Amino acid sequence: MNEDTLRQINQRIRRPVFAVFAGSVVTLLALLVACMPAILQSLVDLPVSPLLLAMILYAIAGLIEALGALKAWTMHQHETLKRTSIVHYDLDDYARNSYADVRSACRVLAEASCVWQIVGKRPNREWKRNAGVSALVKRRCVKAGLMRPPFLVTDLEVYGIAAGKAKLFFMPGELLVFKGGQYQAFAYDTLEVRALPAHYVEGGRVPADAKVVGQTWQFVRRDGQPDLRFARNRRVPVLAYGLVELTSASGLDLRLHVSNLPKARQFARLLPVSGHRQSSPPSLVRPAPAEQARATGARRGWLRRLEHGRSKSAA
Q1: Within its chain, how far is the Cα of 71 from the centroid?
Q2: Are 112 and 191 part of one and the same domain?
């Protein structure tokens, strides 16, 4: 994807949105109408029963809220369509085969029982109380598998990794990172990937596909024996995880723990990060046809409706 295409995509994403503001205004108006019975009773003598007036105004407030919510939802769908871009990849045989390797690598990673993102690491000063480990690793579970890139519609099934605030999408020829409402592209031939064995003292649930390579104690002495001062001193398994490092000189730095070491190594081996030829660039990005889509929000149907419109115009 060239820089001009990426700039068009990000410009569409930055378009202003008003649906949330409209929904807030409608909610405030409905609350004001609902409070009117109490306000009117304190100011004037009502010619009708206060209970009847309250019921009428509550019904009006409910109607305002329902119609306003419907309008805000419609606005949100319409704005989302206008901020969405359609990318069509015209791949040659080499690019198609290369992308097949990328999909195979991502499929292998998605088959692992657990994948975590390593978000921090600090020295462990209380090593006697933490199974003797020298450093404490802060991590969080991430999802790997088929995903829909935000504000993008393409004719391909896309694999991705949802890692906290950042989402990575493996596209033909490049890795797209969506963070902070913007996309950034990293060509595969600028990436470095490594899969290393990592022994991890697992204090939580043991993944089904992880290999146990040893055991230790939660409270341990320097010689590796259990600390007898603690009555409740449980055994803790040591697992052989895979440490996947996906980095780039231009700023990408992702480190993952993969519960299955062979799958981590296979992912790194299949991902074409060196000597990878650029795939064919996508065609010009266009906004999704909001006037044809009626703002239904079903992203799967956008591309189908677009192709249907093209066939009608061609006829």
Answers
A1: 28
A2: yes
Q: How far is CA 147 from CA 157, 264, 271, in A?
A: 8, 20, 18
In contact, 218 and 233? CB cutoff 8 Å = yes
Three-state DSSP class for 257?
A: strand
Residues 160 and 62 reside in one and the same domain? no
Secondary structure (DSSP) of 75-112? HHHHHHHHH-EEE-----HHHHHHHHHHHHHHHHHHTS
Helices 3-13 and 50-83 sit at what angle, rounded to 10 degrees? 170
φ, ψ (nearest 5 deg) of residue 149: -65, 135
Same domain, residue pair 102 and 214:
yes
Tokens of 145: 């598998």
Q: What pTM does this model have?
A: 0.74
Domain limits for position 15? 3-83
Residue range 94-153, pLDDT digits in tens? 889 999 999 999 999 999 999 999 887 665 555 444 444 556 678 899 999 999 999 999
Q: Which residues of 151-175 are buried (b: 16+ CB within 10 A; e: fewer)?
A: bbbbeeebbbbbbeebbbbbbbbbb
Q: What is the pLDDT of residues 31-79, one digit of tens each?
A: 888 887 777 666 666 666 767 777 888 888 888 888 888 888 888 888 8
Last residue of a domain, one of 270, 285, 308: 270
The reply to whether 63 and 139 lie within a common domain is no
In a domain, 311, yes or no: no
Which pair of structure tokens corresponds to residue 309? 């419109």
127 domain residue, yes or no: yes
Give domain status of residue 238, yes or no.
yes
Residue 273 is classified by DSSP as -
**Taking a C-beta distance cutoff of 8 angstroms, is the pair 244, 195 a contact?**
yes
Q: Are 183 and 224 in contact (CB under 8 A)?
A: no
Query: 19 is written with which tokens?
Result: 């649906």
Tell whether 22 is covered by a domain.
Answer: yes
Please state, in angstroms and rounded to a whole number, the distance separating the CA atoms of residues 189 and 249: 11
Q: Looking at the structure, do residues 126 and 43 belong to the same domain, yes or no?
A: no
- The number of folded domains in the chain is 2
